[in-house]
């Protein structure tokens, strides 16, 4: 058995690189989530719930600024024929640095309006620090994208885990001293500084230099214009819930939701990691159109990924309420029923989420933007109406409802590539319905606990 595993994971072929990539991605994500969990448990004992609610708002701005100006550099390098060309890489890096400087200016400009909109004066002080983080992050090396392109993920895993560890240790040390949300914000900046430095010093490959090549610029711009639009949609899909809830619910309720979200979306986040680092290169090297063999290979990989992630989500729904009560102090136990509901609400998204990146792998960033726009509009609509009417509960099933409503459009976009797998979708949908209903039947107390979140 050991010899067979060594044979499967060794070598330079696509299968071996993909298997190593799956293992390393799981290690990086699992290690990162474990560190986040441990730090979360420590920090919740050092800080009050309102600090975590305020940090959730700050994180919305940190991520939003990045996604609202995403030029799609990583995806462009992975799919481009010039992905190993230094002129191409350096032009992209230069564009990224300029983007980071622009983000810093926007973050400073948003500080006062954001504080007034959310009724949180502290944001006028916190968002200028977010500007520093955005500026520094613009200098991250394109060696990270190159490592993804080649499925050479060993050093990349070390980089991701070490930078996260540095940021977490900084947060904990500052929380002991400062006892405020500043510990979380400053720790984020320190982690980013470490990641940028190590991306240049630790990863192999040529150093980035400021450069501008017109063909590279126009290729990146043409590809990135849709990725830019897609990233804006992605922000509303992945972070719109906290941005909208921050306006309608208390910081404490936002903190409870954020803790539940941390656990419930682990399968979805892991799916995104696998799709970006493994499935996207596989889609590029094994196009499904016109090849029965490739379609079968992709179908097997997708089914394995979906099955594992749905099993994980169902497991979280079963033990989630107990897990929160076991790990956290009573101040945070209101996150328990939200975790169960969020885990079940993520099931429709898990079934379909591996499809969209196939469009990117074939250079169809326009189609990718279309499906994300539809999902973002639907989900944002569900969120706004739900948050106004039923508070935090309005965010629980918004993503699943949006995924179901956008599904016909996704199927239509996939047809030219012969990539739609009806058996995969129907099979996992039926499994999710039966298992979800059984779990809710087993947990009648969850209903009563969720009702406590309804606005009075």
Q: Strand share of the residues?
A: under 5%
Q: Which regions have little confidence, pLDDT < 50, spanning 5+ residues? A: 5-9
Describe the main β-sheet briefly. none
Structural class: mainly alpha
The strand count comes to 0
Query: How many helical elements?
Result: 20
Radius of gyration: 22 Å
Mean pLDDT: 82
What's the number of structural domains? 2
How far apart are the first and last residues' alpha carbons, in Å? 60 Å
The outline comes out as globular
Please bin the fraction of helical residues.
Answer: over 70%
The helix/strand series, from N terminus to C terminus, equals HHHHHHHHHHHHHHHHHHHH
Could you give a short description of this structure?
It is built from 20 helices and no strands. The protein has helices at residues 2-9, 14-44, 49-67, 73-79, 86-118, 123-137, 143-149, 154-178, 182-201, 214-248, 251-264, 266-285, 292-327, 335-345, 347-352, 357-361, 365-390, 398-414, 422-442, 445-451. The radius of gyration is 22 Å and the shape is globular.
């Amino acid at each position: 058995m050991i010899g067979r595993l060594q044979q499967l994971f060794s070598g330079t072929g696509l299968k071996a690189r993909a298997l190593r990539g799956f293992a390393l991605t799981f290690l990086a994500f699992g290690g990162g989530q474990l560190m986040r969990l441990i730090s979360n448990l420590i920090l919740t004992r050092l800080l009050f719930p309102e600090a975590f609610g305020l940090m959730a708002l700050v994180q919305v701005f940190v991520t939003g600024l990045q996604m609202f100006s995403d030029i799609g550099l990583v995806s462009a390098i992975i799919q481009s024929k010039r992905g190993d060309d230094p002129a191409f890489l350096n032009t992209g890096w230069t564009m990224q640095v300029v983007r980071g400087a622009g983000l810093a200016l926007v973050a400073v400009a948003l500080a006062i309006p954001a504080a007034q909109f959310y009724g949180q004066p502290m944001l006028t002080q916190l968002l200028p620090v977010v500007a520093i983080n955005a500026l520094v992050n613009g200098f991250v090396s394109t060696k990270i994208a190159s490592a993804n392109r080649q499925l050479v993920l060993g050093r990349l895993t070390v980089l991701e885990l070490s930078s996260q560890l540095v940021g977490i240790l900084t947060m904990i040390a500052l929380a002991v001293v400062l006892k405020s949300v500043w510990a979380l914000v400053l720790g984020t900046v320190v982690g980013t500084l470490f990641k940028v430095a190590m991306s240049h010093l630790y990863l192999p490959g040529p150093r980035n230099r400021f450069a501008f090549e017109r063909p590279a610029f126009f290729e990146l711009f043409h590809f990135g214009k849709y990725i830019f639009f897609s990233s804006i949609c992605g922000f509303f899909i992945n972070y719109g819930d906290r941005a909208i809830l921050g306006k309608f619910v208390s910081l404490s309720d936002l903190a409870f939701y954020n803790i539940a979200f941390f656990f419930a979306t682990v399968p979805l986040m892991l799916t995104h990691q696998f799709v970006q680092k493994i499935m996207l290169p596989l889609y590029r090297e094994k196009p499904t159109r016109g090849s029965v063999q490739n379609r079968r290979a992709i179908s097997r990989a997708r089914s394995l990924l979906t099955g594992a992630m749905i099993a994980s989500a169902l497991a979280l729904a079963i033990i989630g309420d107990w897990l929160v009560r076991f790990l956290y102090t009573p101040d945070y136990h209101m996150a328990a029923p939200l975790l169960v509901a969020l885990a079940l609400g993520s099931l429709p998204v898990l079934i379909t989420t591996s499809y969209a990146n196939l469009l990117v792998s074939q250079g169809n960033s326009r189609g990718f933007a279309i499906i994300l726009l539809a999902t973002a509009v639907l989900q944002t609509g569900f969120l706004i109406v739900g948050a106004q009417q039923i508070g935090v509960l309005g965010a629980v099933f918004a993503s699943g409802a949006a995924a179901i409503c956008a599904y016909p459009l996704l199927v239509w976009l996939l047809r030219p590539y012969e990539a739609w797998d009806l058996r995969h979708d129907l099979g996992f949908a039926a499994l999710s319905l039966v298992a979800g209903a059984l779990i809710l039947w087993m947990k009648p107390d969850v209903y009563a606990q969720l009702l406590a979140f309804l606005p009075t």
